[in-house]
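Morning - zinc ion inputs below, output right after.
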Amino acid sequence: MLRLYMFLAILGLSCLTFASPPRPEIKKMKYWIHESCPSRFRDFDSAFKSALRIARRTWDRLNSDTDDNFHNVFNAIFKVYEEEDDYKDRLQDVKDTFQRVWSLVETKKRKEADIRVYCDNDAIYDPRIQNSNPDNRWHRKKDGRYYDPTNKMYSDGKNNLGPPSCSDTSPSAGVTYYDEGRFPWSSWHYSITLCDVLFSPKFTPEIARLNPLVIDEELKARDWNRFAIAHFSHLIAQTILHELTHATSKGIIRDTPLGYSYEWHNLMAMGRKDALTNADSHGML
Ligand SMILES: [Zn+2]
């Protein structure tokens, strides 16, 4: 027993000697895209690749010592400033989030994918409803919970009885579901649904021109200098990036504070603690 205490004491001391322990290696996660995505939106693949490219570009710019402009945006969103002691650590946290996203690799095999992406608007099979389609991904169970037998996960983790979010009364653009795995050592896996509102928001043509959905050549050629960053929140790639920050962070990056986690004015108003764990703050950067 004493030996154990001595061992623990030495371990405690050795922990103290390392002021900042080495960061865990960033695991390369795999993603898989369900056929509902290219059939729901023709340019889906390029929108997804754009999200990964944006993550890479953000990471590159955060790594630059001379890109003051971008570091100012980083300070404004995350309220982390260079004169603070933990500046380097917090900057590294944000960099790691983007690195986890850009280093994702695609697989064609669903079973080996950590992240499975669907664009089926969270279709539900409800045996109480006549002609409900049993091929739909979510199944309403007798206890009122919603289960996805293909990916073996509930829509609400272990908590309440909420239906999958695309079918909510105020539907989201995208949702990330996760399953922690049956054992502490099993790896988590995730599913992302990109909902119908993402692909066909209710815009008039003039508003649609100001709120682009995809990054194309025409969009790049326009002069956006006088436009607020909020106009880009409708980009499909932005929502994909938002969901990927949830799905690559083991639930650390959430939507915080609840109810005020989206939209530029909320991002500007929130404190650093919320900003550092908020998906949209990362998505907007
Ligand atoms: Zn979110």
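Note: Residues 44-63 form the longest helix (20 residues).

O.
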